[in-house]
Design a protein that fits this description.
Structural class: alpha+beta
Distance between the termini: 33 Å
Radius of gyration: 18 Å
CATH architecture of the largest domain: 2-Layer Sandwich
Number of helices: 7
CATH topology of the largest domain: Muramoyl-pentapeptide Carboxypeptidase, domain 2
Strand content: 5-15%
Shape: elongated
């Protein structure tokens, strides 16, 4: 199965902008380095493979990763870089860059410092998680902020959510149901998923595509 190409354009604009700023800050703090967007959008099938390989705690069946919403990104650290600060997908082999793999002990030297920089951009960083260290992973958080982004998309698309307050009550659920019907896409999720996001990735990405098309 073909792998979804990692692209900044697939991410929510807030995350995309934060990743660009993070790459600049990382280069300033570590001259000669570059970040690489190696994962952006991840399909359910790709999520299931990541879960089976032990690279994620989310199975892609009972729960969806924030990658499915465009609210998470995986960033690799490369050294020996020239002027490029950020690559989308793997850099060319002849560029002479060296990938800092976690298996070589780079979590402490590269990804935990990257996670601390990510926090200054308002992102949550997997490298700083206590239970499961996901070094390259950054995401929009906390949940309150993700719900606000969802409510803003609904409002911009013409669905009435009331105040954009990060509280997914009946009014927001009603707007999600209307959006799902309008977009002919799934919107409901099991209660376990609601702790991460209160809507299905299909309706979120449909709303995001509508908003981007109007820009």
């Amino acid at each position: 199965m073909a792998r979804t190409p990692p692209k900044l354009a697939d991410l929510h604009p807030r995350l995309s902008n934060a990743v660009v700023h993070l790459a600049e800050a990382h280069r300033d703090a570590n001259p000669g380095t570059a970040l690489c967007l190696i994962w952006g959008i991840r399909t359910p099938e790709e999520q299931q493979r990541a879960y089976a390989a032990g690279r994620s705690k989310i199975d892609g069946v009972k729960r969806h990763s924030l990658h499915a919403y465009g609210l998470a990104a995986d960033l690799w650290v490369y050294t020996n870089a020239n002027d490029q600060r950020l690559y989308q997908n793997r850099p060319p082999r002849d560029a002479g860059l060296e990938l800092q793999l976690l298996q070589r002990g780079s979590l402490r030297d590269w990804y935990i410092p990257l996670g601390r920089l990510a926090m200054t951009e308002g992102l949550e960083a997997g490298a700083l998680w206590r239970g499961f260290r996901d070094g390259p992973h950054v995401q929009i958080g906390p949940r309150l902020e993700r719900v606000k982004l969802m409510q803003a998309l609904l409002s911009q698309a013409g669905f009435d959510v009331g105040p954009i307050d990060g509280i997914d009550g009946r009014r927001t659920d009603g707007a999600l149901a209307d959006a799902g019907q309008s977009g002919s896409c799934k919107w409901r999720v099991p209660w376990r998923q609601r702790r991460l996001m209160p809507c299905h990735p299909e309706v979120f990405r449909w709303l995001l595509s509508r908003t981007k098309a109007c820009v």
